[in-house]
User: Fold this.
Amino acid sequence: MISFGETLRLAARALRRNKMRSFLTTLGIIIGVGAVIFIQSIGEGAKSRVRAQIESAGTNIVMLWSGSSQGPGGRGGAGSQPSITWEDLRAIQTELPSVRAVAPQISSNQPVISETNTWNTQITGTTPDYFVIRNWPVASGALFTASDQASAAKSAVIGQTTAENLFGPGVDPIGQIIRIRDAPFTVVGVLDRKGQNAMGMDQDDGIYIPLSAFQTRMQRGLGKFVPGRISVSAVSAEAIPRVRQEIAELLRERHKIDTDEEDDFSTSSMAEMTSMLTSTQETMTMLLSAIALVSLIVGGIGVMNIMLVSVTERTREIGIRMAVGAQPADIMMQFLVEALVLACIGGALGVAFGVGFGQVIAPKFGWIMETKAQVVFISLAVSAGVGIVFGLYPARKASRLDPIDALRYE
Amino acid sequence: MALIELRELGRVYQTGDTEFAALRDVNLDIDKGEFVAITGSSGSGKSTLMNVLGCLDSPTRGHYVLGGRDVAQLSRIELARVRNEFIGFVFQNFNLLSRTTALENVELPLIYARVPPTERHQRAREALERVGLGHRAGHTPSQLSGGQQQRVAIARALVTRPPLILADEPTGNLDSATSVEIMALMTELNRSGMTICFVTHEPDIAAHAARKLVLKDGAVISDERQQPLMEQAS
Assistant:
């Protein structure tokens, strides 16, 4: 067989002779590959957005609730029966090495009154560690402190949306007085903008006050027990299952629960939610990619069609080549490489088209494009494969021509 | 030993149930360096004989020994190699690749002989110069006259330096003046040592050869030596 470079040169020349036809033939592959690249990029973008949203809730979080009640008064959901004490909390914080920080929180929706406006929003009582866990700094002012918590100080840290609604634009909220259930709170800080969470809720609409102040002003709890739910952050994502395990063991031991008894608390982590949301996303992407792949195969049939036409058109040329000594394998390679080049050019143009189309379209719909090199590589490999598979039959047909019949072909 | 030995060679075409014997029983020896004209009326089997000699067509029976090797038994790949190395074929309708320069047309057999590019260009250029077309190397067939196209085809046939040149009606599409030029070129190639065998139905053209075969109904009916026209002239 003659060298690949020689065959490649031959193929390039044959395709250049029929530029328009070559382009139209590759159009199927261009659209197929373009669609794959576009869909994959959009899918990848959406996936990383979901991941970012989930991470905005805080990194490596395990939620801990007091146990569900199972008394004579009927069953209640998680948190309905207080069981976790402040002592338990301290033990989790200090005894478990995989735990980075612990923060209880309790929320309630209340009307909040400023000098100029009234705004209904969620009031959350928590400890300063909450902002560590959620990785949430202030945009201006300061967070409330451990001593504010100890003294039940009437300090409030507010979200951006809340600030805008209470004070209007252009007013510095720091130092302003807001009234929650008639109690005057001083705004000490405004939080950074965080945007929507995975559920589409505005995370910037809320007010955070010391848990102690929440309990004195709004909801008196049982002093011994921690009210509401507790956020625990693990040292790493990998440590999440270990943290859940260790908390369970620690609390069962502290609450003296027998091995045959159920937990009087429950835990959950964001990991499940993350995987659920991203897997839905992945299924969609897979489905759309499969459809795009079908169009790639249709493109391959286009290549086969035009190669068959080309073989017929060039029957005499094949005869001449055979007469001067071309072997069947030489002829086969010539047409196979031609189909391969056609498909690869289509693939490359398809990648450019997919990325270009995405760059134009994505911003209009607020989508994010994230093109993975891996997907580009696979798309090109698949195009090459399509070229070979669909070029094989025409190439074989050409190589099996009888020289004398081919020479006589008109 | 003869360059070509044909023994009881037959070629039968089959269309449906009807059989047609284009060649019946050809026995023929052609020695190295001979200049042979094959003539006969149309349908006599001369073109079929030429195609079989050129390894473009296979006999259905008998033996064709070319340079000591029975090519009737060869595979498609081996036949391709024989066509490339042993035979230069010249056609009535030239059979050049269109939209391809004269030089590239002449290079074609060398590509399939795996000759590296530099040597290939060199040899193709030499072959074109030998047929008097060195100055037309960059022209495509449509830019050349019939006679020039046939010269390019002859250059392509001799570029691999084959021992045997076969020509099927090489002057069939040319006017008489050009025909004489082409036959003069053939004579010159023969004098340089190449064995040449050509088919023609024109007595003037056949007169250039040193040996004349007449075919009728697929068999050789006459085989005689003659004084070549070019020698008579000089």
Remarks:
- The first helix of chain B runs from residue 46 to 53.
- Chain B has a mean pLDDT of 93.
- The CA atoms of residues 11 and 149 of chain B lie 31 Å apart.
